[in-house]
Design brief:
Helix 1 crosses helix 3. This protein has a five-stranded mixed β-barrel, surrounded by four helices. 31% of the residues lie in helices and 22% in strands. It has nine helices and nine strands. By secondary structure, the protein is α/β, with parallel strands linked by helices.
Length: 309
């Protein structure tokens, strides 16, 4: 079975499921794909009218989401007064779960066959830029694909010519007009939460960044660091889907060098000398907590933003 046949098989299953569970014909042709990052599954609450939820494990070709805070299902519905038809990924798939990047991006390929025009990818991330604080939002203007530079790229292998070119350009990966529209929407609704614009840095995970890696990312020009989004953006752009990315800063990454044992030795400090290296450490629980706290503002922004697409 070719990859294209796998996408078509998944699409036909989704169509059959929608036909059985909804009378809304526009749900068959969602305009927007929204990928809900860690702690941001609450975006589903802004869908109006009847919705249809399809667990990943029921869809041919889809893998199962294994990360806490990721529901693992597609949710079809409408958003805003204009009732824009959307499909939400309630939880994404990650390379670090043991899936290859073709599996991680499979839902994006299927969304392309459904006729999606726009993709909104949200994520939780660590703040590398020293001016960013936990709870801030960042509109992604560009990314640094550390994993891709090391050979882990979702477009590696035979090109799917029916979907896009062998060598797609990525200089326009994050659409300028969508970014401008989002900032205008935030101003119109009087959003108080800080919203930056900057560079997302992708690594495979699942470990959080070391102090030295944080300093390297900052030196390279990255503003935040995360373990998702970039593979999905690359495949979406390969398919011709117009992309927008939004990051929620859930923690600030420690970048100061660790305390020196050598200097402690030279000072004659005993081996029992205690240094608290755990202060400021990141945890997934912290990521989910910040996501839940920000979800109300993110939902208001998303509803107003998607309503204009």
């Amino acid at each position: 079975m070719t990859r294209w046949t796998e996408f078509e098989t998944a699409k036909q299953f989704i169509y059959a499921y929608l036909k059985e569970n909804s009378a809304d014909p526009l749900l068959f042709h969602p305009k927007v794909l929204i990928i809900c990052g860690s702690g941001l599954g609450g975006i589903a609450k802004i869908l109006r009218d009847d919705t249809v939820k399809i667990p990943y494990e029921q869809i041919p070709g889809f893998k199962v989401s294994t990360v806490p805070g990721h529901d693992g299902s597609l949710l079809f519905g409408r958003i805003g007064e204009n009732r824009v038809p959307v499909v939400c990924m309630l939880g994404r798939l990650h390379y670090y779960e043991g899936y290859d990047l073709a599996d991680v991006t499979f839902p994006v390929r299927v969304s392309c066959t459904l006729g999606v025009t726009y993709m909104i990818a949200t994520n939780a991330c660590g703040g590398v830029n020293e001016s960013y604080k936990s709870g801030d939002l960042m509109v992604i203007s560009d990314h640094i694909n550390l994993a891709g530079m090391a050979g882990n790229h979702p477009l590696r292998g035979s090109n799917i010519d029916d979907m896009g070119p062998r060598f797609p350009a990525m200089s326009d990966a994050y659409d300028y007009q969508l970014r401008l529209k989002f900032f205008n929407v935030a101003r119109q609704i009087g959003m108080k939460r800080s919203i930056h614009e900057g560079v997302y840095t992708y690594s495979c995970g699942p470990s959080f960044e070391t102090r030295a890696e944080c300093r390297m990312i900052r030196l390279l020009g990255g503003d935040v660091a995360g373990m998702s989004t970039t593979p999905e953006i690359l495949v979406a752009r390969h398919c011709g889907i117009i992309c927008f990315g939004l990051s929620l800063v859930t923690n600030t990454i420690i970048s100061e060098p660790p305390p020196s044992a050598r200097e402690a030795c030279l000072k004659g400090l005993p081996v029992e000398h205690a240094v608290n290296q755990s202060q400021g450490r990141t945890s997934h629980e912290e990521v989910l907590r910040e996501g839940n706290e920000a979800s109300k503002d993110v939902n208001v922004l998303m509803e107003a933003f998607v309503n204009q697409l």
